[in-house]
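Hey, quick one: can you model this chain's 3D structure?
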Amino acid sequence: MDVFTIIAVLVVIAALFGYINTRFLKLPNTIGLMLITIVVTLLVLASSYFDNTLLEHEKHLLAQIDFQSVLLDVMLSFLLFAGALHTNFAQLKVQRYPILVFASLGTISSTFIVGALSFYLFKLLGLDVAFIHCLLFGALISPTDPIAVLGILKQVGAPKKLETKIVGESLFNDGVGVVIFLTIYQLAKGGTEVTFGHVAELFLVEVIGGISLGLILGWLTFRMLKSIDDYDTEVIITIATVMGGTILAQYLHVSAPLAMVTAGLFVGNDTVRETAMSKTTETYVDKFWELLDILLNTVLFVLIGMEMLVLTFNKQYIIAGIIAIPLLLVARFMSLHFPIKFFAKKLDFVPHTNLMMTWGGLRGGISIALALSLTTAMHRDLFLVITYMVVVFSIIVQGLSLGKLVKKLVK
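Sure thing. Here's the predicted structure for all 411 residues.
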């Protein structure tokens, strides 16, 4: 099956699922699409007992897709740039210190807390999983999804300060989480001597290099936008920033996700918009990236739903997944507790910020993509089943109840 056919099939399915959600369910895109894909996938599995033709076609389609490459190397950059472009930069600037602490120290501490808790959980269930592999699981499950939660927060009219913290942290912890994951992945692979110095160097180069590249890309984009007034060309320039910037980041071995977040924030801030874009250009840029954001998210959740077809489920894996859900919520609450306590009075935090950020930390496509990149020796099937269960729970249960929780606690 050629690339165009695969893309065409995914877009047609995405359009159909999006229509069903908009026409009948009327749920936030992320939640509606996840529900529809689960139902359709279960129907395909049920129909396979009578005729497995459709199931085999879906499995063949999935086998043609390199999930790690598609999600991490392509879609993630576009999604993070789009999310950063529409982030309230003024609020983000005010909340920059807690957001940076949440995204860095919070993600690192969450990785180790989840790793330790899951290590003992697996021992309790009789699963022999090395601690370094548990840390890999902690790294891949700690990043949260800014796109999934943003629409929900806007829908319920959450306070801007709270929205900025949750979305800002999610934007940056995706990039930081990928860096932590890749660092631990190198340790877990073994075969080469890895020292603390090597690990620290890899981490710093990825993070600092990614942010620096993002600033350079953002500035170059700003200068080009400022020097012309043609909305068609200016939209193409922003696309080139993401595509060219991602390839350059991979070539330089720095974090492409962090580079795209930084570039998106630079281009999307009010100063750049007022000085480099006309009102017409601003409208077209915003609408284009909003449309692309919706399309990619729709395709992403179709892919994630279809991945259920190739998962290996057994009793121990399912029990581990069920227990992991509350453990992850506890780990997230703990990782945010001290940073929130430290900044709460200085920046006038909304009451119950920790509880709302914990419940609003929805997991999404990046966790699935990282789990898919694991090798068999790293207990790929186990972590993929647990990750999928966590993602489904967070998007459907937490996503559907987050609005009510925010309304109740803010009130």
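One thing worth noting: Residues 69-410 form a domain with the Na+/H+ antiporter like fold fold (CATH 1.20.1530.20).
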